[in-house]
């Protein structure tokens, strides 16, 4: 290529120069798009790419075709962080004296467990956790209602998530359409898979690969549907497999319970006396079990001899059960800790009254008017804030889960690929085809991991408000890391099949996880009273009292009355009943519409098949009449796509049978002439032209 | 860093690794069984009896097979390999594939590299048409002696068993034995020799258009250099027949069938 990078852009360009420049830019763009397929060494490719990019960007602006950039807005709870006042400005945002020494200890920060120590140190008093937020009802000159906003954002996030998930499910259900996809499966795939609008060779390769994959899937399905075996042995093996899986689940549940109990014992003895391993035992065990048990389930499911799709669904169900078991064991343990902290709080409250009394005791009499004693905020004994503790536990869980994922990726995928690649030259057996080989990219496992990660975020978001922001960061990093890992180290799965025909399978799982994750958070909001001295709800008897307060003080009186009428059980129950009946009605009508749709599709198929038969008959008649091979009219695809003239059509030398979804193009008496797509002059009469024109 | 790992801590975390260990054992159980049979049982028998593995095999075949009947000899061999010990012959399943290929092509001149105990020699000889010649190359003298005995037991004449390494024989095939063209080549010797031997065959000009090369065990233990050469050179129409390793159910293996196309 010519080196144009150093060229100076002239101020004024003549039309010829402009044209030449445009051509050059187009050529460079084409080079960029086909660069990947060229057999050059990587360094050369990268250099060429950089130069071409620079060239295109530099001169495209001169030609007046600048690109606009899109800005992506992220949903971060910035409002609360902005409206709250900064560190140190009020008592509960100051680090207590006892912890001051630890919080800024750099030795602690640079320890191996830097993240966990950070959590227990400085960050404890940051915007990350519940304890940062003040319970002052209205803040600043805008009178921002901090506690109300905290509560509404927390609850609103959950409601919004439900809405988004269900809306996506509804949209996917519309696209799916239902229908009979079982007849003439291979014919459909064979004749209707290709996309004639493809012009790029790389896209064509990708399309070819995806069509091959779908054929493999269909063949596998056919094979599976023809197997028949000894039914009793199969049933026995399935029962045995389920029993083994249950044993594994029970074992993992017990192990988690055991380590959680031990960690509570450690906590009672004081965390400093234990090593890093002991402090983080729970998270490590949970992450390890979550990683290894699915592999064991996969191996056990080989006993069951199911259709691959059913086997995959069972596998996903078992992983689901494992995750739920682990998480709920964890939550039960967390409840125990919450109760412990609340007892501590009671004791502390008692001690505080005694301490305050002792402060005033020695200095004042009953009727003196001396100035009140100022106590440094750091010296006031601080209550154990159970909400912050809960938030911390969740953040720790997410962090350890993230770390486990990344380490698994690095060791299980990357290191393995490196070993296989470089040891293969000097090893006795073929490492790529045999034992370790490259790891497969497990689509369903990864999707499930994402879903579970989201579940944990939903669970902890109320007590650690910046958790979703952290998760967005983690997801971005994960995306790039996994993208790289897949391209660099993975091979596709051997058995090609999907977990289910519709996209709604995973969305339904997401919905169930949403429900199950928000349950504990809502339970704690409704039943457990908040801490007395930390968080936006401190001092109230229940967290949702803030709504009551707002109604009483910020809204006119009649509003409160209307609300109390509306929340009367006598009104709410009939309303719920009405909603249930409406759901039932909608469900039954949608079922009947689906049926009607199916029948219409079938009718359409039969009609088009009939037309096809009639036309074949006419074709045979023409054969027998004319005695020569006639070139039947070009594919109906062009008629279907609005008569767009495409250059590819001229290259297709074979006939394409019309697809059954649109009626075939009307066929007249066609004179044998040049192939379709080329220019030909239609002769006015139906005179037979000798075949020599055709090739 | 004061992470002193107390016994109970490592106990809990070690237990968490148990599913991984179980998965490993169950998923690769066939490899463990193979290791047991091919290595441990062999070492045991080597210590208790004084004979080598091939001699033990020959003793068994001598006492249990019907002389003069190749079918019976092959069956006895298979029985011994699946029940008593493990020797890496071609085995019944892959042997059937080879028989089919032989009957399709009906070669007249066959070269076999690595006959080991003579199992594949007998198998090929059985499937050849009348008038065909089979040249068998075996590097190890003791194995060659046993192979000779087995071939004689099966009723074939055995004057074409060449005892020398394959890389020495191939350049001299044309000169010493007067061969013009090889219709069929069967490779079952050391996997790392597949590629050099194939290149030697190409160089010697003994492969003509339509010559078939059948290479065994290209997936396990595997001959990646050979496969790479085959793919890159463009001289062959190649195909891999997938099957399982001989006398083993779960280990996947394959035979590569190459049809020489000639230089375009």
Automatic annotation (TrEMBL), chain A:
Principal subcellular localisation of the protein: membrane
Domain TMC: 385-500
Naturally occurring in which organism (per UniProt): Oncorhynchus mykiss
Stretch list, region Disordered: 637-695
Matching Pfam families: TMC
GO biological process assignments: detection of mechanical stimulus involved in sensory perception of sound; vestibular reflex
Gene Ontology terms, MF aspect: mechanosensitive monoatomic ion channel activity
Compositional bias ranges of the Polar residues kind: 650-659, 678-695
The protein's name: Transmembrane channel-like protein
Compartment list: Membrane
A cellular component term, taken from the record's GO annotations: plasma membrane
PANTHER family membership: TRANSMEMBRANE CHANNEL-LIKE PROTEIN 1, TRANSMEMBRANE CHANNEL-RELATED
Its membrane topology: Multi-pass membrane protein
Coiled-coil annotated residue ranges, if any: none
Family indicated by similarity: Belongs to the TMC family.
Alphabetized UniProt keyword annotations: Membrane, Transmembrane, Transmembrane helix
UniProt biased composition (Basic and acidic residues): 637-647
InterPro entries from the UniProt entry: TMC, TMC_dom
Transmembrane segments: 108-132, 144-165, 239-260, 281-303, 315-335, 505-526, 562-586
From TrEMBL, chain B:
Reaction(s) catalysed (UniProt annotation): a catechol + S-adenosyl-L-methionine = a guaiacol + S-adenosyl-L-homocysteine + H(+)
GO biological process, one term: dopamine metabolic process
CDD domains (UniProt xref): AdoMet_MTases
GO molecular function, one term: catechol O-methyltransferase activity
Domain of life: Eukaryota
Subcellular location per the Swiss-Prot or TrEMBL entry: Endoplasmic reticulum
Family annotation (Gene3D superfamilies): Vaccinia Virus protein VP39
Keyword flag Methyltransferase: yes
UniProt xrefs under PROSITE patterns: SAM_OMT_I
An annotated GO cellular component: endoplasmic reticulum
Record keywords: Catecholamine metabolism, Endoplasmic reticulum, Hearing, Methyltransferase, Neurotransmitter degradation, S-adenosyl-L-methionine, Transferase
Chief localization: endoplasmic reticulum
Enzyme Commission number(s): 2.1.1.6
Family under the similarity heading: Belongs to the class I-like SAM-binding methyltransferase superfamily. Cation-dependent O-methyltransferase family.
Name under which the protein is recorded: catechol O-methyltransferase
Organism field: Oncorhynchus mykiss (Rainbow trout)
Encoding gene per record: tomt
């Amino acid at each position: 290529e010519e080196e144009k990078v150093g060229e100076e852009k002239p101020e004024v360009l003549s039309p010829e120069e402009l044209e030449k420049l445009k051509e050059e830019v187009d050529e460079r763009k084409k080079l960029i798009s086909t660069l990947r397929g060229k057999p050059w060494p990587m360094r050369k490719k990268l250099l060429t790419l950089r130069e071409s990019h620079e060239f295109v960007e530099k001169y495209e602006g001169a030609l007046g075709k600048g690109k606009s950039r899109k800005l992506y807005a992220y949903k971060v709870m910035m409002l609360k962080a902005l409206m709250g006042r900064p560190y140190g400005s009020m008592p509960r945002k100051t680090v207590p004296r006892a912890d001051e020494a630890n919080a800024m200890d750099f030795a602690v920060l640079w320890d191996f467990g830097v993240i966990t120590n950070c959590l227990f140190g400085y960050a404890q008093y940051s915007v990350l956790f519940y304890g940062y937020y003040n319970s002052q009802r209205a803040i600043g000159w805008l009178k921002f209602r901090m506690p109300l906003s905290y509560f509404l954002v927390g609850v609103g996030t959950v409601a919004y998530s439900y809405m988004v998930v269900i809306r996506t499910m509804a949209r996917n259900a519309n696209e799916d359409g239902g229908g009979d996809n079982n007849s003439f499966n291979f014919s459909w795939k064979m004749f209707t898979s290709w996309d004639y609008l493809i012009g790029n060779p790389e896209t064509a390769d990708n399309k070819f690969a995806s069509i091959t994959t779908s054929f493999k899937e269909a063949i596998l399905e056919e094979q599976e549907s023809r197997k028949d075996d000894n039914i009793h042995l199969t049933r026995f093996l399935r029962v045995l497999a389920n029993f083994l899986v249950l044993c594994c689940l029970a074992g993992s549940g017990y192990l988690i319970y055991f380590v959680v109990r031990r960690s509570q014992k450690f906590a009672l003895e004081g965390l400093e006396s234990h090593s890093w391993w002991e402090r983080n035992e729970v998270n490590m065990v949970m992450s390890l079990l979550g990683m290894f048990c699915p592999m064991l389930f996969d191996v056990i499911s080989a006993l069951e001899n199911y259709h691959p799709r059913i086997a995959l669904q069972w596998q996903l169900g078992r992983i689901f059960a494992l995750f739920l078991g682990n998480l709920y064991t964890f939550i039960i343990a967390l409840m125990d800790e919450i109760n412990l902290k609340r007892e501590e709080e009671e004791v502390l409250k008692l001690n505080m009254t005694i301490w305050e009394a002792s402060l005033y005791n020695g200095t004042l009499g009953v009727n003196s008017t001396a100035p009140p004693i100022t106590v440094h905020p750091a010296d006031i004994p601080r209550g154990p804030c159970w909400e912050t503790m809960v938030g911390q536990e969740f953040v720790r869980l997410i962090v350890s889960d993230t770390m486990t994922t990344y380490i698994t990726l690095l060791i299980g995928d990357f290191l393995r690929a490196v070993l296989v690649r470089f040891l293969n030259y000097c090893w006795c057996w073929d490492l790529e085809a045999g034992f370790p080989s490259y790891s497969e990219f497990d689509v369903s496992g990864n999707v499930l991991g994402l879903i579970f990660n989201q579940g944990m975020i939903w669970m902890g978001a109320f007590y650690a408000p910046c958790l979703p922001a952290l998760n967005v960061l983690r997801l971005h990093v994960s995306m790039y890391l996994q993208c790289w890992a897949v391209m660099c180290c993975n091979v596709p799965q051997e058995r090609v099949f999907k977990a289910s025909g519709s996209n709604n399978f995973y969305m339904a799982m997401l919905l169930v996880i949403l429900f199950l994750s928000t349950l504990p958070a809502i339970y704690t909001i409704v039943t457990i009273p908040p801490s007395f001295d930390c968080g936006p709800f401190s001092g109230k008897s229940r967290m949702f009292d803030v709504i009551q307060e707002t109604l009483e003080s910020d809204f006119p009186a009649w509003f409160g009355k209307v609300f109390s009428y509306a929340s009367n059980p006598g009104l709410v129950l009939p309303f719920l009943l009405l909603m249930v009946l409406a759901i039932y009605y909608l469900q039954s009508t949608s079922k009947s519409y689906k049926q009607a749709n199916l029948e219409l599709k079938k009718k359409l198929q039969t009609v088009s098949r009939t037309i096809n038969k009639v036309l074949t008959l006419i074709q045979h008649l023409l054969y027998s009449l004319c005695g020569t091979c006639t070139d039947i009219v070009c594919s109906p695809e062009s008629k279907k796509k609005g008569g767009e003239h495409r250059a590819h059509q001229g290259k297709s030398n074979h006939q394409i049978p019309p697809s059954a979804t649109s009626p075939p193009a009307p066929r007249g008496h066609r004179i044998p002439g040049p192939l379709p797509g080329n220019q030909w002059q239609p002769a006015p009469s139906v005179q037979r032209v000798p075949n020599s024109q055709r090739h | 860093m004061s992470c002193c790992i107390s016994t109970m801590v490592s106990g809990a975390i070690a237990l968490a690794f148990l599913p991984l260990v179980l998965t490993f054992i169950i998923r690769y159980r066939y490899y463990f069984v193979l290791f047991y049979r091919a290595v441990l049982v062999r070492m045991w028998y080597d210590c208790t009896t004084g004979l080598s593995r091939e001699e033990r095999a020959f003793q068994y075949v001598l006492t249990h097979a019907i002389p003069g009947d190749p079918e019976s000899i092959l069956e006895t061999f298979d029985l011994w390999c699946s029940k008593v010990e493990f020797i890496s012959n071609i085995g019944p399943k892959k042997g059937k594939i080879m028989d089919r290929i032989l009957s399709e092509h009906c070669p007249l001149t066959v070269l076999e590299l690595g006959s080991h105990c003579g199992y594949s020699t007998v198998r090929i000889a059985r499937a050849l048409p009348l008038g065909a010649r089979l040249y068998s190359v075996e590097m190890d003298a003791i194995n060659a002696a046993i192979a000779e005995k087995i071939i004689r037991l099966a009723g074939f004449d055995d004057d074409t068993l060449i005892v020398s390494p394959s890389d020495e024989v191939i350049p001299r095939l044309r000169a010493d034995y007067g061969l013009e063209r090889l219709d069929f080549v069967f490779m079952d010797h050391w996997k790392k020799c597949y590629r050099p031997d194939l290149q030697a065959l190409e160089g010697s000009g003994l492969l003509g258009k339509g010559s078939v090369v059948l290479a065994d065990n290209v997936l396990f233990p595997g001959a990646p250099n050979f496969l790479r050469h085959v793919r890159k050179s463009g001289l062959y129409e190649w195909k891999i027949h997938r099957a399982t390793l001989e006398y083993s159910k779960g280990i996947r293996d394959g035979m590569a069938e190459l049809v020489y196309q000639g230089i375009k």
